[in-house]
Amino acid sequence: MVYKRILLKLSGESLMANKPYGIDENRLQDYAFQIQEIVNLGVEVAIVIGGGNIFRGMSGIAKGYDRVKGDQMGMLATVINSLALASALESINVVSHVLTAIRMEPIGEYYSKQKAIDYLKKGEVVIVSAGTGNPFFTTDTASALRAIEMETDVMLKGTRVDGIYTADPEKDVNAVKFDEISYDEIYNRNLKVMDLTATTMCKENKMPIYVFDIDTVGNLKKVLLGEKIGTLVYV
To answer: pLDDT tens digits, residue range 50-109?
Structure first.
């Protein structure tokens, strides 16, 4: 096994699949089965999910929402997605816990590093929701923060593309994929892998990121078994 403890970042938009908004039940189940596969391999799994399939704070600002309230609405969207994933995992007998960065018992337990690590050591999935609990921070930044706090071996960024390219492969047919890339090169090329705060946190704390296509069933297990199907970001 390449990694023993991971932080898996999932995109809220990916949960929509082909729907215009909300959660596609088949996509949600696919994610749950992929997570079950690696839990059965003995991998300790923490997860952060975005909320863009329900509400995006930044897009709300363009429509006249206050930034702080918009970001808070986005945090609540991540809680909804986290509950959905926890339910999907429960349906296939995978024990999981939804932890929230804002107190909202009994919906979820209030996050603490020690509580999260205790669950991970027992082989139980930890789903951390509500971002960092603060406005002006993205779920990418929350993922970086939690990965560093929970001392994971890597942050896996599951996306709809199979890695990092010189340009957006959905817009540029000449875009070339990287098998590996350093944080410095990401800065120099101005590549939009994550927001700058998240990227800086990972670089300063020597947290590697692996970007891969999670929408292809089986890919998560392949990453854990060492197959080079995405892009590794290293310090």
So the answer is: 999 998 766 666 677 788 999 999 999 999 999 999 999 999 999 999 999 999 999 999
Half-sphere exposure of 219 toward its Cβ, with a 13 Å CA cutoff?
Answer: 23
Q: CATH classification of 5-234 is 3.40.1160.10, yes or no?
A: yes
Nearest CA among 95, 91, 59, 97 for reference residue 77: 59
5-10 vs 154-159, strand pairing mode:
parallel
> First and final CA of the chain: distance in angstroms?
21
DSSP secondary structure string, 55-83? --HHHHHHTT--HHHHHHHHHHHHHHHHH
Q: What is the pLDDT of residues 161-211, one digit of tens each?
A: 999 999 988 889 999 999 999 999 999 999 989 999 999 999 999 999 999
Q: Which positions ≥6 away from 230 have C-beta within 8 Å?
A: 162, 163, 210, 211, 212, 213, 223
Q: Residue 234: beta bridge partners?
A: 182
Looking up tokens 């929350």 gives: 142
What is the spatial distance between Cα 87 and Cα 67, in angstroms, rounded to a whole number? 31
